[in-house]
């Protein structure tokens, strides 16, 4: 497999998967590196990888610690890298959740389902109809298609809004 093909595969993965792959590779590299720098403290490569994951995700358990200056420098880099990736991971998840919510409110997401009620066009009668439907059949799934609304809050109307016109 050449580098170009690997990059194509990597950049087509969802960002969360890419992040986990990147973290796993970096932690494995740090683990191998610390094993070769301090083989007495990290007798196996797995011990080094274990230490790298634990140290990168937290501050370590203390079961393995580097003793040399070079080992401690590697640990400092690992702690900074781990903290940065954890912050990036959490912010990526938050951003994706917020973007999904905004796209849902703005009617940018398609509806994938069946057994739903479709309403076309928004006006006072549509609002009343939604209230009647939800009052009589609370579990009803309603899809509203309209081009005059710019957004609709799911908290106000528990429906799936699609911005557009039916042609």
Amino-to-carboxy terminus distance: 47 Å
Tally of structural domains: 2
Could you state the order of secondary-structure elements as H and E? HHHHEHEE
Number of helices: 5
The main pleated sheet reads as:
3 strands, parallel
What share of the residues lie within helices? 55-70%
Structural class: mainly alpha
Mean pLDDT: 85
Which percent range describes the beta-strand content? Answer: 5-15%
Structure in words:
By secondary structure, the chain is mainly alpha-helical. It has two domains: 3-105, Helix Hairpins (Orthogonal Bundle), CATH 1.10.287; 117-163, no CATH class. It has five helices and three strands, in the order ααααβαββ. The chain has helices at residues 3-12, 15-37, 45-57, 69-105, 124-136, and strands spanning 117-120, 142-146, 160-163. Strand 1, helix 5 (124-136) and strand 2 form a beta-alpha-beta unit. The two termini are 47 Å apart. The mean pLDDT is 85.
């Amino acid at each position: 497999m050449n580098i170009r093909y690997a990059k194509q595969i990597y950049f087509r993965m969802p960002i969360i998967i890419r992040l986990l792959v990147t973290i796993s590779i970096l932690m494995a590299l740090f683990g191998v590196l610390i094993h070769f720098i301090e083989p007495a403290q990290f007798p196996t490569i797995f011990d080094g990888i274990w230490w790298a994951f634990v140290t990168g995700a937290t501050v370590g358990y203390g079961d393995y610690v580097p003793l040399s200056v070079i080992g401690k420098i590697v640990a400092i880099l690992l702690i900074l890298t781990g903290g940065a990736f954890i912050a990036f991971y959490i912010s990526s998840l938050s951003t994706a959740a917020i973007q999904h919510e905004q796209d849902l409110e703005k009617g940018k997401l398609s509806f994938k389902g069946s057994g739903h009620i479709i309403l076309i066009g928004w006006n006072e009668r549509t609002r009343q109809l939604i209230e009647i439907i939800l009052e009589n059949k609370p579990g009803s799934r309603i899809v509203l298609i309209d081009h005059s609304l710019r957004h609709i809050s799911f908290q106000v109307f528990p429906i799936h809004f699609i911005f557009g016109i039916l042609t």
